[in-house]
Automatic annotation (TrEMBL):
<feature type="domain" description="F-box">
    <location>
        <begin position="9"/>
        <end position="34"/>
    </location>
</feature>
<dbReference type="InterPro" id="IPR001810">
    <property type="entry name" value="F-box_dom"/>
</dbReference>
<dbReference type="InterPro" id="IPR036047">
    <property type="entry name" value="F-box-like_dom_sf"/>
</dbReference>
<dbReference type="Pfam" id="PF00646">
    <property type="entry name" value="F-box"/>
</dbReference>
<protein>
    <recommendedName>
        <fullName>F-box domain-containing protein</fullName>
    </recommendedName>
</protein>
Amino acid sequence: MSNKFDIYVIREILKNVDPCTLIRCREVCTSWNREILRMTKLTRKFKYGTITFELTNDEFELKAGRKSYCLQDWNEITLLRMLQNIEPSKTLNLFVHYQTSKNVFDKFFDGLVKEWCSSVQELEATIAIEQIVDPIKPLRLFPNLTRLSYSFMNTDTVDCTQIFDRIRNLRYCRLTRFEEFNVEDKDRLVFNEKTLQSIAANQEIDTRRLQRLEIYMASVYFKPEDFVEFIARVSKPHPHPSLKDNESIYEQTDDIETVHILFDMCCFKLTKTENIINAVVEKADDIMFYGPDCSLRFRQVHCRFGDTKFFLMFGQEL
């Protein structure tokens, strides 16, 4: 695989590859190791000790390392008994295929044990069915997440604020929808000033947990002054101690003094990205622009507030 591959495309490909297959490829092909280290930024499937739940049609499959268990005739009681014999994993992959019915989806989440799920700190979830009314439902079982990568389909509006109100310790969060964004459609994923306020409220007075925030295919409703206030609130000089002691493969590759914020393939409803960038520049000590050509996919701003650096990326407006 080449570094020239689009990151988003690679991530979508990896979602469809069996975790056990990826681990076996790593064991038999040493030339993969360098690429796999790079790919750990996009998926947790390469990590040993990760548990994977997959729902396809009426089947439920559990994978842990090289072992896998497939159940075709199961119910909430069966799932409950299985979880009683499995030690909770720090990292959980959850994949619901598009062929899965709403009844199977509801049966699965009704059978999950909240105490078991509360031990999960990192969740990579892909929900590829449209029938679910509430895409936030799966996240209610995981209040102690520090890392969330969530891709889903939805027909009703989902407010990102609900996620940050329920999961308050997130330091890494990636949210994206599957459907192609159409400006004429009604809002499906909304990120507004209340979302900014919720994220800011989750930070402590003297420290901040937030390290990386990535939002894709959302309708964005906040004004430049709202974003500047948010930046000022989360730009604390000291990262939370949990960031320094964290053993996550992903976050070891990041500078904990840097906060990454990305909006890509989003529709900014109240203002243009230029206005947001200009508002940030006015408050920054120093500023560097990369790729000022408007035809580029990303405009990037690197600014500094106090001792914390910010690397901001805004995708093209739709």
